[in-house]
Write a structure and sequence with these properties.
The structure is a single chain. This protein is mainly β. The protein is about 5% helix and about 50% strand. It has helices at about 55-60, 125-130, and strands at about 15-20, 25-30, 35-40, 40-55, 75-85, 90-105, 110, 115-120, 130-150, 155, 165, 170-175, 180-185, 200-205, 210, 225. Strands 1, 2, 3, 4, 5, 6, 7, 8, 9, 10, 12, 15 and 16 form a 13-stranded antiparallel beta sheet that branches. A 3-stranded antiparallel beta sheet has the order 11-14-13. A hairpin with a 5-residue loop joins strand 1 (about 15-20) and strand 2 (about 25-30). It is globular. The chain starts with 16 loop residues before the first strand and ends with a strand. The relative contact order is 0.17.
């Protein structure tokens, strides 16, 4: 290999999912261990990997998502190495150990097909923003990959009485056991929540984490009118 390029060669496989750099996901594919991934996220693969866009399982679970068009997911099967990316966004790999995570749909890159998942509407925001918010809840034993527009921060809510406030347009994921409510900031529309264009935030409390990206681009959100 050309010496200047040697440092970019794939590292030996050590896990089902792992990062190749900050902006690419490497998945070790095996027959019988299928994967759901965002449509259009495949950038390369080795071996024999097949793709099925919007498979029946996705259409059935996501039929109520957004306008009824379903989730933009494809089913990946086969043996080999699969590389996924999303326009240079940072990739965050999570190994669920029987727990769960609620993910903003536009930040969901891939997850093991055997995990339990479903699309749910986040309550408590419509009266503040006139909009609803849809997230994907994933639980079980397996791997999940998220994307973040820049290096994210993971905030531990700590389980105390204090609340953690996040601009909805910067939210990536959170522990689904957290309590969530909307909060309007008095006379602060020009100062808070630049991306949302609204003076409101999501307030989290309880035991769990919140993943926040350094981006408030409202085009990254999937919303429908309440």
């Amino acid at each position: 290999m050309n010496q200047p390029l040697a440092g970019f060669a794939p590292a030996p496989v050590t896990a089902r999912m792992e990062n190749h750099g900050n902006h690419m996901l490497k998945v070790a594919m095996q027959t019988g261990n299928d994967l759901f991934a965002r449509v259009g996220s495949m950038v390369a693969y080795e071996g024999f990997v097949q793709y099925e866009p919007n498979p029946p399982a996705v259409r059935q679970i996501a039929r109520d998502w957004m306008t009824g068009e379903g989730a933009p997911l494809m089913k990946c099967t086969g043996d080999g190495l699969l590389y996924l990316a999303d326009y240079g966004a940072n990739v965050v790999v999570i190994n669920l150990n029987g727990d769960a995570i609620s993910v903003n749909a536009t930040n969901l890159l891939a997850f093991d097909a055997h995990l339990t998942w479903g699309v749910e509407r986040v309550k408590g925001l419509a009266k503040f923003a006139g909009q609803g918010l849809w997230n994907t809840k994933i639980s079980g034993q397996g791997w999940v990959a998220l994307t973040s527009r820049g290096k994210p921060i993971v905030v531990d809510c700590g389980g105390g009485e204090d609340e953690t406030y996040v601009d909805p347009d910067a939210l990536v994921a959170w522990s689904p056991n957290l309590k969530v409510k909307g909060k309007r900031s008095f006379n602060a529309q020009s100062l808070i929540g630049r991306g949302s264009g609204e003076a409101y935030q999501m307030a989290f409390s309880g035991q769990g984490i919140v993943v926040v990206q350094p981006s408030e681009d409202s085009t990254d959100r999937l919303r429908v009118r309440g």
